[in-house]
Every structure is written in C-alpha cells, then in structure tokens.
Amino acid sequence: TLSSRKAGIRTFQNKYRPYADYEKPGYLIMSYKSDFSSQQAKLEMAKNLPADAFLVIFGNPLSAAEKEWILQTYESAVPRSRIKVISLNTGGNGFWARDGIPVPVLDQAGSLTVIDARYYHSFEPDAEISQLFKTGLEKHDYFYEGGNFQANHRGDCMIVNNDRHALIPDDIFSGLYGCKQLIRLPFVSGIGHVDERARFISEKTIVTDTPSYKDLLEAKGFTVYLLPKPARPYETYVNSLIMNDRVVVPVFGEQTDAQALAVYEQLG
After folding, report:
1. Which end of the chain is more exposed for a tag (fewer CB within 10 A), N or C?
2. Rounded distance, CA 217 to CA 198, Å?
3. CA distance 114 to 182
4. Cβ-count burial of 128 within 10 angstroms (0-12 exposed, 13-18 middle, 19+ buried)?
5. CA 176 – CA 169 distance, rounded (Å)
6. Per-residue pLDDT tens for 197-231?
7. Global pTM?
8. Positive or negative: CA dihedral 90, 164, 154, 189
9. 113: which DSSP letter?
10. Does the pLDDT of residue 146 top 90, yes or no?
C-alpha cells in the first residue's frame, strides 16, 4: 500500500475499502475469558450467529481439556462443527477482542486483509490472525484499537479524536483502512472510542447517544437517530452487534432500556 517514502512524505494507493459492521458476517471472534460477568452476553451473541457463520474463540495456548470445556460451553448456542477454538500468544490479554484483533478491510477483488496496529494491552495477534485466516497483512506503528473505528462500506469512517488517535495522520486511514472521508468526532467523555458513542446501521444511517454528534453527522448528510444514555458511567446502547437481520443490544435494567430497543426496532 505504501507506494513511496521521500523526505518524510507518504503517498498511498487507495486500494482497500472498510468492512462495515452491518455487512454479512462470516465469523464472530471473542476471547474465552468471561470477565465482567460477560458469559451470558457471549452466549446470546453466539446463539444469534447466522447459520453459515463460524464462532471463533481464542485464548492463551490452551490444553485439550480447556478446548473441550469451551466447546461444551458454547455448543448449546452453536453446533460444535461451527466452533473454532484457537490458541494465540498472550491471548489472555485480549479480552476486548474488537480492540486487539486486527481491523478487517477488503481489496478491490473482495479479498480480506487485516491491519496490524500497536495495542497497548500487549496483545499482538495480528500476524497470527492473518496466517490463520489466510489474509493479507498491512502494518503501521501507531497505537490504535478497533473499538475506535466505525465505517460504512463506501468508505465514510468515524473515530473519536482522543489524545492517542489524534496523532494518527489522515493518510493512514485513507491508505490502509480505506477511508474516503474521515470524520474525527471530538472527545466528550468515557473511554474515547467511537463504539461507545456512534455506529453505522446502514450506509447512510447512524445511531448515537451524543446530541452534539447528531448535529455534526447530520450536517454531513447522514440520517441520525438519538439513543438514550443510561445512568451509570461507561454504559451505552450504541455498542451493539448487528448480524444480518438481528441485533444484540446491551441493556442495564434501567428505564431507558425500552426506549433504546424501540429505536433499533424502528430501524428494522
């Protein structure tokens, strides 16, 4: 992708496009760990996996007994034939799979490539993932997490411009992540990832729980629906999982749950 490097000037060939979260999934990848009482949520996601997609569960180098335990845990949701259990070096540091697993993009022929960035939890499975899935591999040296990347299939991309990611030049996003338009949303509060603040539902439709983002994104021509914000810190209805005609949404036992679900139902 990097076509020249002279006097500190980088020139990229824009040969990739983003894989959008609303597109047909082939795999759902998650850690074997169940931190934050997440086992029920993971089983719910697995249960709603499309019938032709695979569940991939990773961990530290796993014994045969540990792999069998994982298979037994998840085969109530997915047939064993569609579960792949893989060992990754430092896999125990990768609970936040969306952040540490490399971001997927597609080339002009529709072939998969993954983008290797630095991850601050010392979980660097990028080359291993590329080998396991037989994909291309591109690399840059900036710290970046997949949780701060949202895009549609046309190349409109959103990130929260937090302190770390504000340092990444636009041409990294255009050249490696396939972004034709990069929208840097201002940091408001929280972790500083876009997946807690805004997400694409379709090419031109976005949900957000941040009113200032709604105004900004509508000014760029998108149709934006406002989700409520739960009462406690770090809770969000935005960080959902779309799999074909189903969406898995976190709920918190709060009065805003029903309102949030109604927004998703309104969007089909």
Report:
1. C
2. 10
3. 19
4. middle
5. 11
6. 999 999 999 999 999 999 999 999 999 999 999 99
7. 0.92
8. positive
9. E
10. yes
